[in-house]
Each structure stands twice: as structure tokens, then as C-alpha cells.
Amino acid sequence: MKLHRALSLKIPLAVLLLILSTAIPAVAQSRVYQWKDANGVVHYGDSARGPAKSILIKPTSSGLDGGANRPAIDEAACAGKREQLKRYSSASRVTETNALGETRDYDDAQIKKLIETTEAAVRSTCGEN
User: Fold this and answer.
1) How far is CA 84 from the centre of its chain?
2) In angstroms, rounded to a whole number, what is the distance separating the alpha carbons of residues 70 and 62?
3) Which of 19, 32, 73, 115 has the fewest Cβ atoms within 10 angstroms?
4) Are strands 59-60 and 42-45 parallel, antiparallel or unpaired?
5) Domain spans of the chain, in order of start
6) Model pTM above 0.70
7) Which three-class secondary structure string do you get for the chain?
């Protein structure tokens, strides 16, 4: 009789654990919404604002996929840094003018260092490794 009672408790418990184990991945998934504002700028958020497209972010072994832990990229700043790098890379001469109107010419080594610094700024600003 005791064996029967013990089994009758273990089977429902096992079924409950099985159901919960299959439900956990569904709960772990997050929804992110994507929409464009009146200026055509794309936004992402955890709630829809106006007509929005739902994006499913699936969990991975290291957490949520999709860069959820990365800081948001400022697309305008990224484009500005890329343009700056393009100008520096194609320039045969770089001259800097300060707020007092004084000019300073960069030599080849300084231009190379300026390009390296700007490349690092592009990687950082645009979220590249």
C-alpha cells in the first residue's frame, strides 16, 4: 500500500516537472519592437509605439541573443566617425585650426596616429570589435 501511495505522488510530480521544463524556454524569450518615427529613424523598445514590428529574441547559453547587453549604437555618431576616417585616410595633408584661428600641420607620423585613433573610435562608436 505504501509503495502505491509513493508512486501516486511521484508520477504527478514528474509530469509537473516535465511541463515546467518545456515552458521555461518560452518564458525566457523576450520580445523587442521595432518602429520608425516620423523622420524615418528606426527605434527599438520593449513596448510598441505606433505601428511596430515584433522581433523575437531567442535565449542562448550565454544569455539573450541580439546584443541586448550591448549599449545602443548612435547611428549618426557612427556615420560621422566613418566619414571622418574616410577624410583622414584619403587626405595627403591634415591641418588643424583651433578656436583662436591658429593652424597646425600634421606630419606623416601624426596623420598615421590620427587614422589609427579614428579607426578605434569607429570600432567603439559603431559597436565593432
Assistant:
1) 23
2) 13
3) 19
4) unpaired
5) 29-67, 75-125
6) no
7) CHHHHHHHHHHHHHHHHHHHHHHHHHHHCEEEEEEECCCCCEEEECCCCCCCEEEEECEECCEECCCCCCCCCCHHHHHHHHHHHHHHHHCCCCEEECCCCCEEECCHHHHHHHHHHHHHHHHHHCCCC
